[in-house]
Design a protein that fits this description.
- With 329 residues, this protein is of the alpha/beta class.
- It folds into two domains: 10-242, P-loop containing nucleotide triphosphate hydrolases (Rossmann fold), CATH 3.40.50; 247-312, Alpha-Beta Plaits, CATH 3.30.70.
- Helices cover 32% and strands 26% of the residues.
- It is built from twelve helices and 14 strands.
- The chain has helices at residues 16-20, 67-74, 96-100, 118-126, 135-141, 157-169, 187-202, 214-220, 238-243, 261-265, 287-300, 315-323; strands at residues 27-38, 41-52, 56-60, 82-87, 90-91, 103-106, 175-179, 206-211, 223-228, 231-236, 249-254, 270-275, 279-284, 309-312.
- A six-stranded mixed beta sheet has the order 6-7-8-3-9-10, with helices on both faces. The protein has a four-stranded antiparallel beta sheet with strand order 2-1-4-5. A four-stranded antiparallel beta sheet has the order 12-13-11-14.
């Protein structure tokens, strides 16, 4: 593998391959009807999807949706109760060791040997593999050069996350698994990790990541699957997910003091009404007519809609449509 250094649902009852429109031979990761239960709790309930070579595929959903459990079964950390998982053309159950030498894993939480320095830890992990990237290049690419001789226990949250990603890349993997890579990071640190993920893709690595941040999924993922309660509700590109459900624009305004749903639904051009935590969304096929009717309705009550704005439907609108709740709930 000639590579520059880092600078890796069919649950609704129809074929995952037909839904995703990609043939088997293009898939680096194939997940077919995978299930996992803990007692009576179905953590993963018939999940199917595939990831093509060189793409970033995201599992998007709230905490407890089954994203991490799905990821861990693909990584070979836990056996599925049913279904099949193939990575790089190999059955995870039969070829776990061979697969692990060709993939990199960044866990949601990881022990980083607090007394070792950053460079020592990277060297240690690199020694586990026949193939490894140079420590100096990993330090440079992950912006950890100044922390080379710092003990890992002294690193900030963002630095620990970058080190965790560096450890996932130490063996120059073809496939990289990132489990909630930016959880708990401030906006600047999050943007920094996004840059690193995009760089991985530019090197030809295939990336499967989990996230519960809408903006992260939209910014990074070529395709994604929306998960909730252990099932995939829909998958595709952001535009595909939105286009299947929304052909209208959204008129947004503050929920406090808003008219009731029946009166809003009767406004000109309105096709549906959605009440979110702090705002109301009117989906409309005629924005001018809807706004005029809304202003007339609220004006008769001596009020006006606060924080009024217009935007196209978003990924969050899709999630609300699929689950009946906002992702942050």
């Amino acid at each position: 593998m000639d590579r520059l250094p880092l600078t890796a649902d069919a649950s609704s009852g129809f074929s995952a391959l037909a839904m995703l429109g990609r043939p088997d031979q293009d898939a680096v990761i194939q997940v077919d009807d995978v299930r996992k239960a803990y007692g009576t709790v179905k953590a993963v309930d018939g999940v199917s999807f595939q990831v093509a070579k060189g793409e970033i595929f995201g599992l998007l959903g709230p905490n407890g949706a089954g994203k991490t459990t799905t990821m861990e079964m693909i990584e070979g950390l836990h056996p599925p109760d049913g279904g099949a998982v193939n990575v790089l053309g190999m059955d995870v159950r039969k070829f776990a060791t061979a697969i692990k030498h060709r993939v990199g894993v960044q866990l949601q939480t990881a022990a980083l040997y607090p007394q070792l320095t950053v460079a020592e830890l990277l060297s240690l992990f690199g020694s586990f593999y026949a193939r490894q990237l140079p420590v100096d290049r990993l330090l440079e690419d992950l912006e950890l050069g100044e922390k080379r001789d710092a003990r890992t226990k002294t690193l900030s949250g963002g630095q620990q996350q970058r080190l965790s990603v560096a450890l996932a890349l130490v063996n120059d993997p073809e496939v990289v698994f990132l489990d909630e890579p930016t959880t708990g990071l401030d906006p600047a640190a999050r943007q920094g990790l996004w840059t690193i993920v995009r760089r991985m893709k530019s090197e030809g690595r295939t990336i499967l990541m989990t996230t519960h941040y809408m903006e992260e999924a939209e910014a990074l993922c070529d395709r994604l699957a929306i998960m909730d309660h252990g099932r995939i509700l829909d998958s595709g590109t952001v535009d595909e997910l939105i286009g299947r459900r929304f052909h209208e624009r959204g008129v947004h305004f503050a929920r406090a003091g808003a008219p009731d749903e029946a009166r809003l639904a009767a406004l000109a051009g309105v096709t549906r009404v959605a009440f979110e935590t702090e705002e109301v969304v009117l989906f409309t096929s005629n924005v001018p007519a809807t706004i005029a009717a809304l202003l007339e309705l609220t004006g008769r009550a001596g009020t006006e809609p606060a924080n009024l704005m217009i935007r196209r439907a978003s990924l969050e609108d899709v999630f609300l449509e699929l689950t009946g709740r906002a992702l942050r709930d």
